[in-house]
Give the backbone structure.
Amino acid sequence: MRETHVQPSQLVLPMFIAEGISEPRPIESMPGVVQHTRDTARKAYAEAAALGLGGVMLFGVPEHKDAQGSGALDPDGILNVALADARAEVGDDLPIMSDLCLDEFTDHGHCGVLDAQGRVDNDATLEIYAQMGVVQAESGAHVVGPSGMMDGQVGVVRAALDDSGHDDTVILAYAAKYSSAFYGPFREAVASSLTGDRKAYQQDPANARDAIREVLLDIEEGADIVMVKPALSYLDVIADVRATVNVPVAAYNISGEMAMVEAAAANGWIDRERTIDEIITSIRRAGADIVLTYWAAELAARLDRQS
Ligand code: PBG
């Protein structure tokens, strides 16, 4: 009688790969999640493929940052070499997805480059995103995930990919990305240097119609998959988007959402596994075809044992 099922192929594992470390580094605010070395990440890609996950979403943590985020365009930059490692390890057995954003690479921590007044310069950022898309596809990404919420980002990345012969590279657009307090632990995960906030380019949590507008614009620009993020406080938005569009819908159960569960479970206040199952099932029930979750591998292994 069950209406909603969760399968490993619907789950995508976000992973952090850090430059210049020799041992994996635990992320304190995200229990169980680490910054990987290139080597430990390789094991995780193979494991993700063996579990039948729907993909891995890679984030790079560079050793050096600058105002332009130049590490993002360097083929030897940490994210690009990690993509190449992943492709060499699993080939086409696992969709390899790449975060396409500058915040991990900029010393000011913003998702784009800044203008003379210190504001994020939307159009100058688009030029860099376009090049990033090509470098990431060339490094090995099957799917690129523009996550910086710049206006027009999907269109420029699609055009750059098509012009460089990467017309079959998929775009997973972070279409409705809210300016959320739940990103807190992620900022530790990528050693973010952000001061201030992202309210000028991320969405107001009070707005749902606005999300539909963003999603439709992204589809018009060529998005293959649209994502809502965060997931839990936005289940209504996921449901609205699912009812409106005819492309796959993804949702990202983000760092702060997992951290709350881990903290409560560590205190013995909730049953950890039941809570995780309920949360991921709810996101699926709301309408997400794909769920990005830090519990993807754990959950897939558990589903495997149950079947
Ligand atoms: C931007 C990006 C962020 C996350 C994914 N991509 C951070 C932000 O917008 O501040 C957050 C993921 C999470 O919190 O788990 N590159």
